[in-house]
Design goal:
Two copies of one chain form a homodimer. Chain A has about 400 residues and is α/β, with parallel strands linked by helices. Helix content of chain A is about 35%, strand content about 25%. In chain A, helix 5 runs parallel beside helix 7, helix 6 packs antiparallel against helix 7 and helix 10 packs across helix 11. The longest helix of chain A is centred in the first third of the chain and has 25 residues. Chain A is globular, with a radius of gyration of 23 Å. Chain A starts with a strand and ends with a helix.
Amino acid sequence: MSLIVQKFGGTSVANAERVFNVARIVTDTYKKGNDVVVVVSAQGDTTDDLIDKANEINPNASRREMDMLLASGEQISIALLAMAIQKLGFPVVSLLGWQAGFKTNSTYSAARIKRVETDRLKAELDKHNIVVVAGFQGVNQYGDMTTLGRGGSDTSAVAIAAAMKADKCQIYTDVDGVYTADPRKVPTATKLDAISYDEMLELATLGAQVLNNRSVEMAKKYSVELEVLSSLTNVPGTIVKEATRMEKMLISGVAKDTNVARISVIGVPDEPGTAFKLFSRLSAKDINVDIILQSVGRDGTKDITFTVAAGYLKDALAILNDTFDSAQVIYDEDVAKVSIVGAGMETHAGVASKMFEALYSAQINIQMIATSEIKVSVLIAREDADRAVRAIHNAFFPEN
Amino acid sequence: MSLIVQKFGGTSVANAERVFNVARIVTDTYKKGNDVVVVVSAQGDTTDDLIDKANEINPNASRREMDMLLASGEQISIALLAMAIQKLGFPVVSLLGWQAGFKTNSTYSAARIKRVETDRLKAELDKHNIVVVAGFQGVNQYGDMTTLGRGGSDTSAVAIAAAMKADKCQIYTDVDGVYTADPRKVPTATKLDAISYDEMLELATLGAQVLNNRSVEMAKKYSVELEVLSSLTNVPGTIVKEATRMEKMLISGVAKDTNVARISVIGVPDEPGTAFKLFSRLSAKDINVDIILQSVGRDGTKDITFTVAAGYLKDALAILNDTFDSAQVIYDEDVAKVSIVGAGMETHAGVASKMFEALYSAQINIQMIATSEIKVSVLIAREDADRAVRAIHNAFFPEN
């Protein structure tokens, strides 16, 4: 008998029909003799509706009260899913985050899970109950409700799988797996049977938006085998696991990220400490910098160019204008980052140059380049992004 | 410094404007130097909307899951009220039933409060926080969410007032106090300054619908002084307290209850055990019987007539037809119970006959009569009910 953790997002439980669809997937898994723990998010737009209600009353409400408010969303969805499972005739119990043992720190709205105390979960499984757990939430040392922030339900599912030593953690989403590129943009994109944690991490960071990064990091740390699959099609998804266990593909995917802006500081003094001064002030304001490029100095000055998430552009510009009186700050919002990711890169030369060749053939100009052991990213004009993804994908995955 | 518990119902927090109205009442009380604990219900139609969602999925869902679902309603309203209080610039913390220490038994959907563990409440008041508590909910010995059933938030407020030895428990509602009759039906009805627990209990049972009975019973048991008042008008309400402390009025009010049906069983055997047989079967199905009238036997048979709440009529008829083969069961749904309540009755003769005289003068036929130490009830045709209330009210409270 296996223990399987299944996670379903808000769109999967948006209405009664979809709740029953989820209930059937869960009970089919249970019928095969498995223990099943199900993690669900709030229904459809519930969280957004609650945020609207809060903003109408007090846009500066404390995060503690915001978490109290938002945690009600999952409470509704776990109860409804449990009712649907009862209707199908199976034993079930729903548990809130605190009931399922989720102990977090006190960073309201972005809490970190400290541990999952599994007594209640184990007791319910011993009673042969299907256990439906509210994702995204926990309780801190004061006994107050906390929420885990973006992608929190994925993290909840992986945390349970890790704490309970589950055999598998299935993340149900609206795509049926991880593709070599976005299938809506690249018709020849193919689904991967398997991908390593590191590749998945790079893809998630790069905007593939299939799995939340925190959950992949946690899965890697505790060796939880993930499967990304669709709640609408009954086909195997993509397995995310240790790289050593699978054949290394040259590259596993091409990803695009348009949530990016480029900033250049022109003519800063070419002296020690300039970069430190610049980036420490940005990091003090929690602005994460991605690609950094520094020109060779000229006339006692140099230029520093870097990228930030688009949402931080305004804040970053304000800091830069305060920090450098004499320098000129220019920026470009119409950019995109296109990346290839693959564990095979480490052992195969020429992967980067193959990517650059594809972009040259498509007459796409490269503004910046950044590389890691398993990733090559380029910054290009945003209007060229989809064309770039297709050109690179065709180079690495030629059509049959 | 006093400790004041204030309770606001669902209509009082139905939208952002009303939430702020409540926030102002609460903070005005706090500004006067009082400790304040506020108990709120779910917003407006939230509970009904959640019940609709549940029924769409599974009308026979377990009560445990129903309680899990419904408890989310108060979670939303306490967070929003706390946010409004923050906006007005006051320190506040919201607490769910389990956080506020509400320990209940495990009768889901109709749980009884076993005790309120006040550590957290006291700690928050020591920090000079206004404490906003979710009414209607608690947690049982298994750590599962329970709800208290009808009027549960009133009971929550009184339970906190009792456990914390509060100086006063104010129940805010949509009327500004307890009246000698329904002011919408009887223009000459006047507001009472004070009423005893027992009178309030009779009035609540009789359909005055101002305060839930369980809360009045609990207030009486723990000598919690209640005040019924309006959240919309800034005037003193009606105090509910021990009778000994106030001047006894002859009668304190006239109440009407149309949620009633009359059933007659004609021709049951005139032998010992008949009534027991009949009423024990009804009580086994949790059907409460109100007024009972038994005719003198004739031809070896007798007739038993009684009233039940209208909602139980169908179930009661089914049981009766199963129980008595030979007897004839007839019923009347078009009836109403009109009652007068007053602690002064015990010491004043002629109260009942004054009521009967008023009904005779109005040419209203009395079908059944029931009396207690502080109450006289009559069953009449439903179409006569409002006219009866006015006639009786005029007899006891003549217009000036």
